[in-house]
Amino acid sequence: MRSLPIYGLAFVSFVLMLLSCPAQGADKPATPAPKTATVPAAPAAQPAAKPVPAPKVEPNPVVQKKDTTRRFRTGTVISAQLTDSKIHITGLSPYDAPPPIAAGDIAYAIATVKLDKDRAISIYDYELVDGLAIYPCYALSLNGEAFAANKWVYKITDPEDTYSMLFIVRKKTPPQKFVTYKLQSRIVKEDGTELPFFNWEKNHPVPIKSIPATGNIGIDMTPPPPPKPPAPKTPAKSKTKATSAKAVAKPDTKAPAKPTAKTDAKKEAAK
Q1: Is the peptide bond before 174 cis (omega within 30 degrees of 0)?
Q2: Nearest to 114 by CA among 154, 87, 151, 85
Q3: pLDDT reported for residue 227
Q4: What is the domain partition of the chain in residue ranges?
Q5: Distance CA 24, CA 49 (A)
Q6: Alpha-carbon separation of residue 75 from 71, 101, 166 (angstroms)
Q7: What is the pTM of this model?
């Protein structure tokens, strides 16, 4: 057997030595790699929500009550009516001067009032003014009684009572539904209170006792039209059954048969 060269043995010994020696650093545990912080992914962008409009809040409608009264110097006017129909006045003196108005042009204006506490009223306290025309008060009425010219003053009054002043004025032509006059004091200079008098024309005004405490100034009091008369009833048709043509016996319109020799022979044989 051929022996290996010396350098060959040395090389083999060196290799065996390397295999038998542990690797350097084998006892030390491997240093773990540093952990890197993970950044969470950003959430996907969502579409912006549409703004919801706020519900509309409708304001409560303010119902304005119609002013059916008027304040004047010593109280409250609750009614103002005008009529062409003659108003009867009691207690007239033969020395009272008639109004300077033709009889066919006279109209009567009635202002009904409630007085403030401890206030008096007389026919000399107030007048109606229409431009340059001035109409004095002719008579007073308490709680719907007849107008009396001789009862010209009420010194002791009650706020619950109603007092009406009667003025004789000139009729308006053409007639208007509301005629405005100014109620003005004859004692104290003031602007007065404008009153729309409802014009009844030839009709009678609302009775003073029927005027509501809340007043009726400015209210259209035109009476409703009368109901229409009922339509005349038409007579009902007779329901007799019509006789059919078939049920009527028709007269025999055929001419009688003429006698012949054969018919005569048959009659003789029958005998």
Answers
A1: yes
A2: 154
A3: 84
A4: 70-210
A5: 66
A6: 6, 30, 17
A7: 0.61
